[in-house]
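Question (not urgent): is this output format expected?
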Amino acid sequence: MPFAQAITDTPIPASVVPVKASFTGVEDPKAHLTTFHTQMILSGGSDAVYCKMFVSTLQGTALEWFVSLPTDHITNFQQFSKLFVKQYIVNKAPPRVSYDLFDIRQYQGESLRDYLNRFGAQMVRSPAKDEEMLVYAFKKGVLPGPFCEALIRAHPATFSEVRRLAVAHIADESEVAEKRGSVALLGHVPRLESSRRGCWRRWRPRRIKGLAILMIRGGTREGAQGAPGSTIAHQSTSLSWGWRI
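Got this back:
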């Protein structure tokens, strides 16, 4: 076993949560170590526990590499992590450069929210810290439109100001979209008529020869065509005139 006897004899406490990460030998070793440390912060543990928990994340050829190490070779986690990075340094992702930010463009049909999140994610990975360059890169990638014009007029000096303007614009767009939806719903209120007693349905007047008299009798509308010289008994509670179209 590559671990020293002191590590081998150390039990793993029941409170330690299993790490939800795996390394098969083709991933970035430093990124894997970062993920491992982040998850282990929640559980804690001694140096020996870190060593044992890290082994549980190795799979495939990476686990074969660990087993091939000399017996009692690993005495602490710092030594273990250095050996691990050295073994898989070829998989280390190349460092990002500042001009990568200028390759980010807002796609046609992409929302401002999605573009802002995508740019922000790339910005975190970029070594660029110059605020003027960040602002220029964001403005260069945003699509022409109301927000782009507002951004040009505002002359933001920092990316924090850009983010504040974008968030305000996104909120305004959401409010306008909500109001448009409400107006659209109000414009589709159906007109109702009764086709038989106690049952109501959508109604449109119809144009027929002559003037139609619509009588509402006990909640039911009935149509009767006035004929020359005829008399219609007014037994309904209300009487309305209209053309059937």
